[in-house]
Design brief:
Helices cover 38% and strands 22% of the residues. By secondary structure, it is of the alpha/beta class. Bound molecules: zinc ion.
């Protein structure tokens, strides 16, 4: 049976760039565009040419891509001709395969925001589409506030959509700009529009203000739309856009969609989608959402012992799809609730073959429980768990010894008369017969300690150059009689691997030191550094 083609349009670089706290550089944009192209999306909307220097430079620098690089901008301004509108001229001049115009489709916005007549808005849509087609570009029209506009005045909203379609626009995109429309409303309205304009010319652009942007996108597809617009990790202003990282696996793995539709994302590319999602977080210097569907660290994590033993027998008992399909891993959490089956399964995953009657298993379980009683949480710290297990069951080389470290914090007035706080660390490390001393300044005592510790590890230095700390979390706990500090450090390396380590102490520097040491030792171990 031949499947229908469904198109994916990514707007991470345009709508996603509106996210609070996100400011892409040109280099970021080029990296993201390449990631999207490799993933297999059909359109990459890259920005507004002429509106800011980064976007203008992007279009000047554009490189060949499979995806259609799309420029975004407004239709001609009311009362001007297409040849006398500098904004439109910049869009038409940009090196782009496609142009996505945004236009009002709610009569109320036409009057109040645009301060023009309904007819002039329609003429602006027609003229702009025609001008872009004459330039040889594929044309899309984003109908802003389409759903609210349709509820208020269906005839006018439809007239805007039809004006573009009749003029030859390839796609008419229905935008839920305020993000407040519900899935059953989207399905009904898109269904009505598809009776006037063929569904294979209709797209959906949903915002996530009721946490239903993904559901709204699927509702539109069920009603006939054949293009989905969204962003990586659901980036976008306010509550974000429809998350393509959730939409793509659903389209590929759920029979209702997979049997009916074909998309440009291959099975192999789907297997890298977790890496794409985490790659974007790294670029934004954000911690990945552990609970993200499909790609989050917890998406395939199981805690209770009874579930874990069932998963070992057949993963389908507790997993809706296989984690490997999306580049994720099954994780059986080792925690104070865990039984032997969790422990065995987790050991199996990290490549440790242990007989279930091995007495060392009981010792490891006791050790985990004792440590969790004083504040450790191994379910959140996979790498520290692996080191603990390897120390108890096998061997972890003694790569180096930290003979001593000294951390100081000084607050003083600098030469400009400003009050500044400076942190310094000195670390004395023994690597084989070499004694190495490193000193570093940091923006805080833990940062100074980290920088000093990783500055010179002698013969091991080359193994840790790609090591990066991506997140640092601190919690104060009441364990037993005293308050203790738990530090979790998330690290990543050049190969895109992520791991988490833990330290617990009444002293925050000590706790951080433990977690830092575990992270470095884990990296040396996984890189196969010689003992
Ligand atoms: Zn939007």
């Amino acid at each position: 049976m031949s499947r229908e083609r469904l198109y994916l349009f990514d707007t991470t670089l345009r709508d996603g760039a509106q996210t609070n706290g996100v400011d892409f550089t040109l280099a970021d944009k080029l990296v993201i565009a390449r990631m999207l192209d490799e993933l297999g999306v059909d359109y990459v909307e890259a920005g507004y040419p002429g509106a800011n220097p980064t976007d203008t430079a992007f279009f000047a620098e554009r490189r060949p891509a499979r995806a259609k690089i799309t420029a975004f901008g407004m239709t001609r301004r009311p009362g001007r001709s297409t040849s006398n509108d500098p904004g439109l001229a910049a869009i038409l001049a940009a090196e782009a395969d496609a142009i996505c115009f945004v236009a009002k489709s709610w009569d109320y916005h036409v009057r109040v925001a645009l301060e023009t007549t309904e007819e002039e808005n329609l003429a602006s849509i027609r003229d702009s589409v025609r001008a872009a087609k004459e330039k040889g570009r594929e044309v899309l029209l984003d109908c802003e506030h389409f759903f609210d506009g349709y509820k208020a005045n269906p005839a006018y909203a439809l007239a805007c959509a039809k004006a573009a379609y009749v003029e030859g626009a390839r796609w008419i995109v229905l935008c839920d700009t305020n993000g407040g429309t519900l899935p059953h409303e989207v399905e009904k309205i898109v269904g009505e529009v598809c009776q006037q304009i063929p569904g294979d010319h209709i797209g959906i652009h949903a915002h996530n203000d009721t946490e239903q942007a993904v559901a709204n996108s699927f509702a539109a597809v069920r009603a006939g739309a054949r293009q989905i617009q969204g962003t990586l990790n659901g980036l976008g202003e306010r509550c974000g856009n429809a998350n393509l990282v959730s939409i793509i696996p659903t389209l590929k793995l759920k029979p209702e969609y997979a049997n009916k539709f074909e998309i440009g994302v291959s099975d192999e590319a789907l297997g890298h989608i977790a890496r794409v999602s985490h790659g974007l977080d790294d670029l934004l210097n954000r911690a990945a959402d552990r609970h993200a569907p499909y790609v989050g660290e917890s998406a395939f994590a199981t805690k209770a012992g009874i579930h874990a033993s069932a998963i070992m027998k057949d993963p389908a008992t507790y997993e809706h799809v296989a984690p490997e399909c999306v580049g994720n891993k099954r994780k059986l959490l080792v925690s104070d609730q865990s039984g032997r089956s969790n422990l065995l399964a987790e050991l199996d995953r990290i490549g440790f073959a242990v007989d279930k009657n091995d007495p060392r298993l009981g010792r490891l379980l006791d050790e985990v429980k004792e440590r969790e009683a004083i504040g450790y949480a191994y379910e959140a710290a996979d790498a520290s768990f692996e080191l603990l297990a390897r120390r108890l069951l096998g061997k972890v080389p003694r790569y180096f010894d930290v003979e001593k470290f000294d951390v100081s914090v000084e607050q003083r007035i600098n030469a400009k008369g400003e009050r500044v706080t400076v942190s310094m660390a000195v670390v004395k490390v023994k690597v084989g017969d070499d004694l190495l001393i490193s000193a570093a300044e940091g923006n805080g005592p833990v940062n100074a300690l980290d920088v000093a510790l990783r500055k010179d590890l002698g013969k091991y230095q080359s193994y840790i150059t790609g090591l990066e700390l991506t997140d640092y979390r601190v919690r104060i706990l009441n364990a037993g009689t005293e308050a203790v500090t738990r530090v979790l450090i998330e690290s990543a390396d050049e190969g895109g691997d992520h791991w988490t380590t833990i330290g617990v102490s009444s002293n925050i520097i000590d706790a951080s030191f433990q977690a830092l040491m575990d992270s470095i030792i884990y990296k040396l171990l996984k890189s196969g550094a010689p003992a």
